[in-house]
Task: structure prediction
Amino acid sequence: MSFCRVKKRYFIYLSYNGTCYHGWQVQPNGISVQEVLAKALGTIFRTELEIIGAGRTDAGVHAKLMVAHFDLEFELPITLNLTHKLNSFLPKDIAIYKIVEVLPDAHARFDAIMRRYEYHIVTTKNVFKNLLTAKLSEQLDFETMNKAAETLMEYRDFTSFSKLHTDAMTNNCVVSYAKWTQQDDEWIFTIQADRFLRNMVRAIVGTLLEVGRGKMSVSDFRTVIEAQNRCKAGTSVPAHGLYLVDIKYPERIFIGGLSLELLIVN
Result:
């Protein structure tokens, strides 16, 4: 079958359990989600493809929803089979939801207008959640932790919660939601912002835990933010409790607003 050569860009929506991966981005010393996905797409399309993610998740971090984009240089027939084909090529800890055609200049990272993370903690022994949540046995004051979390929405510069020596042009972020909620034996911290710095959520959670333990007041938490110094914040919490759960984009970048699942015809 012949294809008409024309550049097409697609957003691919996926989830993954990050336990076995060295994060999203290709690494020289370990396997990454980006690498595995690119290999699967390359096998199906019979060409090498560059996959650009909406962001970088660290080693061991999970994604209930990640978005990435890739380009094709040919037109493909529309059917309902590509997600099935991709999932059959991918390991059991990576799953594809849908593929959406977008404008040729749409960008999975730079066009995102909102990202949301969750951090999951269990306070009792749960044999089914050991690898997917952080375990804390001490009593925590979640009410005061929520008062501290509310202050995050008053600030823009989050240098105190950023990994040092990154390539970020700015440490400014707009946090629009930050709250602890309880679901059965889990406490979940949900935070939403226009962008996040490297290690930001894990550093925020680690510092909020200091508030919950009574080692830091809400006023102290403000002082940490205002110091713009990573050394003043708490220790980053383990990666396996963190999940990227949602990413939003402006409607204008989508073509037709419909997901396109494509079949490669041999």
The two ends are 7 Å apart (CA to CA).
